[in-house]
Each structure stands twice: as structure tokens, then as C-alpha cells.
Amino acid sequence: LFRSTLEPMPELLGKYCIVEAHTAGIFAGVIKDWIGPELELYSARCLWFCLGPRAMYQLAVLGPKKPDKCKFTASVERVLLIGIETVLPTTELAEKSIKAVPIWSC
């Protein structure tokens, strides 16, 4: 059984962040609420695949280097994520470039 030990960080409420959840994957969006192991994101995209950055940390700072090769879903109004492992606030550059990636579909 996975138990998140990451404590909520109130200073990130309202910020655009990259969030990794234990079984749900990696998302980008605005943190609306964070209580214990549950985090609610607004305007959230699932980041399935990204070419360019070698780590999420680099993606949070520089954004994707090859946006046409990324596989990011359409944004959903909100998503509740459980089992938070990593939360990275993004730079303005990264936020703009993540939002600009075309919607991936099969």
C-alpha cells in the first residue's frame, strides 16, 4: 500500500505546477486544493510523453523542447489526484509551452 509522505504546501495554491501521482501519472495544471495525500488540479492536462527534457524538473523550468512530438491530453476542468509523489511549480516559459502543445489523440 502506497502512502504519500509529501506534505501539502499552501504556497503553491493557485500556481501552475507539474504533479506526479502514484498510479495516475504526470499532470500539469493549477493547484486548487491540497489536503493530505489528495490534490485537486484545475485546467489539468495529462502529460503522457515528452521529447526533450530528461527529467520532470527540466520540463518544469524549460518546457518541452519538441512540442510537436509530445503526447499531452486535452485539458479537463478539474481532476482529483491521490498519492502525490512530486509537485514542481513551473516557470512562465514552461507553463506557456506546455499549454501550447497540441492535443494528442489516437
* Biggest beta sheet attributes: 6 strands, antiparallel
Poorly predicted regions are: none
Please state the structural category: alpha+beta
Number of strands: 6
What does the oligomeric state look like here? Answer: single chain
Order of helices and strands: EEEHEEEH
| Bulk shape | globular
**Rg from alpha-carbon coordinates:** 13 Å
Tell me the helix content. 10-25%
Question: Helix count?
Answer: 2
Strand content: 35-45%
Word description of this protein:
This protein has 106 residues and is an alpha+beta fold. It is 15% helix and 42% strand. Strands 1, 2, 3, 4, 5 and 6 form a 6-stranded antiparallel β-sheet that branches. A hairpin with a 2-residue loop joins strand 2 and strand 3. Helix 1 packs across helix 2.
What brief labels describe this structure?
alpha+beta; 6 strands; 106 residues; 42% strand
Fold topology:
Layout: E1 16-21, E2 25-35, E3 38-49, H1 56-62, E4 71-72, E5 76-82, E6 84-89, H2 92-100
Antiparallel strand pairs: 1-2, 1-6, 2-3, 3-4, 3-5
In short:
By secondary structure, the protein is an alpha+beta fold. Helices cover 15% and strands 42% of the residues.
